[in-house]
UniProtKB/TrEMBL annotation:
Keywords: Carbohydrate metabolism
Name of protein: DUF3536 domain-containing protein
Record-stated family: Belongs to the glycosyl hydrolase 57 family.
One GO MF term attached to the UniProt entry: catalytic activity
Taxonomic source organism: Nostoc edaphicum CCNP1411
Stretches with biased composition (Basic and acidic residues): 19-30
Keyword Acetylation carried by entry: no
Tagged with keyword Electron transport: no
Gene3D superfamilies: Glycoside hydrolase 38, N terminal domain
Length: 911
């Protein structure tokens, strides 16, 4: 495909696509419009999936083996594009390209927040890519902003339009350190009111589908004031040039803004005419529709030369000085929808396109070189994924239907119900907000500053800036509740809720959960009860699923049951405390002073998702098979600053049985008496007697394992299963040892092995392998022990191969990958004079991964090696020729081959 000499020297490096020392400024297409330019725009976005009460994404089984869909798509798309491989014919890495340096891209703010939290390395690569592209393209970075949470803008009221734009701008500015030049509209949904808001907020350009244009013509000039309009409503617009869209009070199809002013003046003197640019406008790029569709729905992006050929087919041969071939699609296409295609892009960006003489650019840079010479008028209300304007998000238009089997009659009632709720919440916000905020709507617009940083210092600074008076603690809570109510009122309009065929899908359920949270917050602040009216309106939204019947029933079954309060958080804390407390039968106050201080730092302040848990007292005692814990806990929401002071008691009856009770803290004396009674009941070693005492003291309401948040419930289930699994593992291991000879005989004679025996071998060897890997992880700093563990792993691998065992050890796989990466980093950065031993150990670790056949990934190690190849390894090799470092060089190059990195350029230089 290419040689290392033709690739960037290291990951993150950029190419000078054109270089001519003679008249460089005149011919450099990065400085002056000249030739063919290519822009590939990726719209990277995931809908907000966070539980409204926990501010975290819970496990999504459909995304297995990953935790959730964000994580799955991240490993298939977002990360691979930050470290896109360019391979030679042997499948070796010759380049690692940060595709975000070449993409034009927008990344939804909700997705960027997740990336920042989940994988800061990739997050930083994205920020660095924008900075590098800005440097390469003379101040115009690749990133553009997005309306904040993917609301269909033509369906939003004016106030929500502005908030979405302002939140998107501020989120962008806080991340990329600059103002956005362009903005991506959700589903490219647009109307003239949206354009007016964008212009008012300083957005220079947007990207639309060719089907959204109505007509176009050259911009009128004094010499040519009435150029002819070209009708392009059937997607015939020439997408190789930018267009200027002038804003008018009404869409007058008979004249342009310039000619209208001219006619109004009744004066044909050109010198008195205003220039077109004196009128408000926004510039628009229309992506190439056929190529963009091919990217999403054909195999054109699986081969870089074919992709370049498809781009080339759009180049106009009319001898114009410059033209832009721009394509746009979901960024998730590259790696998630179409596996491995991030490699296609990396090669196309850095090799195929430059070979054609094309300049890889972005829209802002191209606009700086080539101001629009044409104007365009748009159809009234349109989007890129609906042939009926924006009916996909409000009507039964057929778009997104399940092959015509399911209707979408629920869309209009859902939209109407949410619009009604938004208007009711607006009244609540204005009435109560004006008592707390000088300008409630400006406060909402600037609330993004708190959403980005919820530290107490920042929140206090924000409230001080907007408050009408010095707020009391209770008023601060109400202020934050009101703002959170508005945040959820915007989240409930996220477009995904209407996109598909059924209201009860996860996307529809999610926006209803946001609505439910907004309802709850309104009730807490204003005491208004809006839920009944909302559910009644949802009852008009018919479901395709018999179990639900309509939206009201979906709300009752899937939204109300998912609501959480302080009691559930306290119950979660109480039950999990049984598995985190290591000092039973003690209270904090009974510990020596130093131990008490240590204990306080470890246990007093904990975080339960978005709640701060301050444990004021805790005591746990065991009696036979029973364990009882009683505690005094203060919980504070880090989002609304609401707090509760609670008492809990949790009884573990053994196995899966828990009985937990929660009540308000009513004073130290009451709490002391409660503890005394409960532990007195426990002394009788009777579960029934203890539960009776708990019921008498706390009431009938009780919580159990099922009430835990899913993540912790699964962790505790695994802990509770460990003893059973260990016992079963011993039984399987014994069965395997007792029947080893029989198993070998079956395999030797190529007779089908009884399933029971084969399963015993799989489990026994898998368990032995995992235990050995854990020991290796613990002893990796001790060479002697490490070698012993590696030899044991090799023996296991040999045994497994002979017996055709399938080792299923996902934890062990991850452990081995991390050990290899750690050892490589140590070798390259801190060898401590033991280079030969370290590299031999590392090579054997890689080999044993192959031998165990557990499909280890060496990507991170590969990236680490490649990042050092030219900056560290090559200089060492070049200076060590003929001396004692020569052996180290050869070993390092051999390691590179093992990691599938092309080191031929250095090998050839060494002769």
């Amino acid at each position: 495909m290419t040689s290392a000499a033709e690739m960037p020297a290291s990951s993150g490096s950029t190419l000078t696509l054109h270089s001519d020392p003679k008249n460089a400024h005149e011919t450099d297409p990065l400085r002056k419009a000249n030739g063919v330019y290519v822009t590939v725009h990726g719209h990277f976005y995931q809908p907000p999936r966070e539980n409204p009460y926990l501010d975290a994404i819970e496990r999504q089984p459909s995304a297995a083996p990953f935790h959730d869909w964000n994580e799955r798509i991240h490993w298939e798309c977002y990360r691979p594009n930050a470290f896109a491989r360019v391979l030679n014919d042997q499948g070796e890495v010759v380049g690692i390209v940060n595709n975000y340096e070449y993409f034009s891209f927008n990344i939804g703010p909700t997705l960027m927040s997740w990336l920042e939290r989940y994988d800061v390395e990739v997050y930083q690569r994205i920020l660095e890519a924008d900075a590098k592209s800005s440097q390469r393209l003379h101040g115009h970075g690749n990133a553009i902003a997005q309306v904040y949470n993917h609301i269909i803008m033509p369906l939003a009221n004016e106030r929500d339009k502005y908030t979405q734009i302002r939140w998107g701008k501020e989120d962008f500015r806080s991340r990329f350190g600059r103002d956005p030049e362009g903005m991506w509209l959700a589903e490219t949904g647009v109307d003239y009111a949206t354009l007016e808001a964008l212009v008012a907020e300083g957005i220079r350009f947007i990207i639309l589908a060719p089907s959204q244009a109505l007509r176009c013509r050259p911009i009128p000039t004094p010499d040519h004031p009435h150029p002819e309009w070209l009708e392009v409503g059937g997607s015939q617009i020439d997408s190789t040039r930018p267009y200027r869209c002038y804003l008018k009070p009404t869409l007058d199809t008979s004249s342009s803004p310039l000619s209208a002013i001219n006619e109004g003046n009744g004066d044909s003197n050109h010198s008195r005419l205003p220039t077109p640019d004196s009128l408000p406008y926004i510039d628009i790029f229309f992506y190439d529709g056929p190529i963009s569709r091919d990217m999403g729905f054909s195999d054109v992006v699986y081969n870089s030369s074919r992709f370049a050929g498809r781009i080339g087919s759009a180049v106009r041969g009319d001898h114009r000085q410059t033209q832009l071939i721009s394509v746009a699609t979901d960024g998730e296409t590259f790696g998630h929808h179409k596996k491995g295609t991030e490699k296609t892009l990396a090669y196309a960006f850095t090799k195929e396109f430059p070979q054609q003489g094309w300049t890889v650019t972005n829209f802002a840079h191209y606009l700086s070189l080539n101001s629009p010479g044409w104007e365009v008028e748009l159809k009234s209300v349109t989007a890129w994924s609906c042939a009926h304007g924006v009916d996909r998000w409000q009507d039964d238009c057929g778009c997104g239907g399940e092959g015509g089997v399911w209707h979408q009659k629920w869309r209009r009632p859902l939209r109407d119900a949410l619009n009604w709720l938004r208007d009711q919440l607006t009244e609540v916000y204005e009435e109560h907000g004006r008592q707390l905020f000088r300008d409630p709507w400006q406060t909402r617009d600037e609330y993004i500053q708190v959403m980005r940083d919820r530290s107490a210092t920042n929140v206090n600074r924000f409230l001080a800036r907007h408050q009408t008076h010095k707020l009391t603690a209770a008023e601060q809570v109400d202020a934050l509740r009101l703002l959170e109510m508005q945040r959820h009122a915007l989240l409930m309009f996220t477009s995904c809720g209407w996109f598909f065929e059924e209201i009860s899908r996860p996307e529809g359920t999610q926006i209803l959960r946001y609505a439910g949270r907004a309802l709850e917050l309104a009730g807490e602040v204003a005491g208004v009860q809006l839920e009944k009216g909302f559910v009644k309106r949802l009852g008009l939204a018919p479901s395709n699923v018999d179990d639900f019947k309509h939206g009201g029933e979906i709300y009752r079954q899937l939204v109300l049951t998912a609501q959480l309060g302080f009691k559930q958080v306290a119950a979660h804390y109480a039950i999990t405390s049984l598995f985190t407390n290591q000092k039973p039968a003690q209270t904090h106050n009974s510990l020596p002073r130093k131990d008490a201080a240590d204990k306080q730092s470890q246990r007093y302040h904990k975080k339960v998702y978005c709640y701060a848990a301050n444990e004021l007292d805790y005591q746990m005692q065991r009696m036979g098979s029973l364990t009882l814990a009683v505690g005094n806990l203060k919980l504070v929401s880090e989002i609304t600053w609401e707090s509760e002071h609670l008492v809990f008691a949790v009884l573990h009856l053994g196995g899966w049985d828990f009985h937990c009770c929660i009540q308000q803290f009513t004073g130290r004396r009451d709490y002391s008496q409660l503890k005394e009674k409960l532990f007195g009941a426990l002394k009788q070693a009777s579960a029934a007697h203890t539960i009776l005492a708990m019921t008498q003291l706390f009431g009938e309401e009780a919580f159990n394992l099922q009430n835990l948040f899913a993540e912790e419930r699964h962790r505790i289930m695994r802990l509770l299963s460990e003893e059973t699994l260990t016992r079963l593992g011993q039984l399987y291991t014994q069965a395997y040892r007792d029947n080893y000879g029989v198993l070998m005989a079956f395999h030797r004679d190529e007779i089908a092995v009884p399933q029971e025996l084969q399963v015993a071998a799989d489990i026994a060897l898998g368990h032995r392998c995992l235990m050995t890997l854990r020991s290796l992880e613990q002893d990796i700093a001790d060479p002697q022990k490490s070698w012993s563990h590696i030899l044991e792993l090799e023996a296991i691998a040999t045994e497994a191969k002979h017996l055709r065992c399938r080792l299923s050890i996902p934890d062990g796989k991850q452990m081995l990958e991390q050990l290899i990466a750690r050892s490589l980093w140590q070798l390259l950065h801190d060898a401590n004079g033991s280079f030969n031993a370290d590299i031999q150990l590392l090579e054997r670790l890689i080999d044993v991964g192959d031998q165990l056949n557990i499909d280890i990934s060496l990507q991170r190690s590969q990236e680490l090696y490649f990042s050092c190849l030219h900056s560290q390894i090559a200089p060492v090799c070049i200076t060590s020729v003929g001396n004692e470092g020569d052996n180290q060089c050869l070993q390092l190059l051999k390691l590179g081959k093992k990691l599938a990195v092309d080191v031929s350029m250095i090998s050839n230089q060494l002769g």
